Amino acid sequence: MELMGDLGHTDQLSSVRLELQVATNRITDLTLANKTLESEICRLKECLVFHGIDAKGYTRASLGHSQQDPPSPPLNPNGNPNPNGNPNPNPSTSTSTSTTNWDEYFSSLPTPSPTPTPTSLAVAIPNLHTSSNPLSCAITPTILITSGADNNVKFTQWGVACGPGGPSSAVSDALSVGTDAPVVTMATAQISHGTTLLALTKKHDKFVKSTSFNPTNSLLATASSDGKIHVYKSDSTFAKSIFTSLSIESIVFTTDTQLCVASRDSSFLKYFDVEEDATTAAFCTSLNGERGSFDEHCSFSVLSLKMCDKNPKLLVAATDKDRNIVFETGTSCQVRNLYGHKANSFSNPRAVFGSPSGDVVIGSSEDNKIYSWDLRDGKVVSTIDDVHRGVVRDMNFSSGTLVTCSFDKIVKVWT
Prior knowledge:
With 415 residues, the protein is of the alpha+beta class. The chain contains 3 helices and 27 strands.
């Protein structure tokens, strides 16, 4: 009997040791995963660029680097600033037409048709910025980046919110970077000049409306409704300025040196070559399409521009008149007109490409829905209903994941 008791104790001890080893291995795996996420946060801190909204101009020096002031606008013969830096403020309209058969292009894409888009809510994170509204958002496979009216930019491991601790655990673990003013637009990119957090916000007289990195992340452009565009190198040193009389809404680099600019109450998209003459647009393309390329009236304004990452010939414009337009970059060709959603000048419309090949566009809507369009025929293929209880302030898409933020103080991730 004593022998049987000893054997029982031995088996129990072996079992405990085995459980202990399993727990130790699990701790090791979690520690490694945590270090990986911490590394990802550090990398994203290096590449975050944020902008304040102080109308007087908001200053936060980029850490470890100095900034130069941009030059003053060129003067006309009367001694007043010439907003275009050129006696001719109206650059020529591009007459280049599309050379691509887009119907053939989209029909040649592999199935499934179209690429599946996010429709399922992965996680909703309330009060990430306490009682303040989130203002902008971006996402990677592991990190959620948001800015808010609480003067903070937050890096959140959004996968943590899907775990046992729930959203509150993700909120409490989020890394917070304080700013001197609310951040209303962000541009993120992977850069390699050390551990600098870029903050380039002093140089505008009005709110910064849009930011864009060029494809190789060597240049950053910022734009404001003050009509100024400032271009910086990736180490945060100032490169040059573009002075316009435009009320700029959105900018996007279409090549490493070519910048596309959309402005309110304009019938053209203006393309600037930031390497050549940075005082006037190199050419313009008509928002009215190839047939209306000389019509100076336009019934809508473009409020947001996004490039297709894998197909730089495609550019999507979100407008304030229930219409998103996919353009062929550098031309007046309207590849597709997308309808079915609701948008006006106060609803902050957003549209992004929802697939690498560019066959799907995802857009926000005033009716509290997210719409997805198949560019093969321009039709709506799916919607997400009741996205938020308030207006969608911003949305972004990356690697099959969609992130939205709203004035209901909730940030949501969709897969």
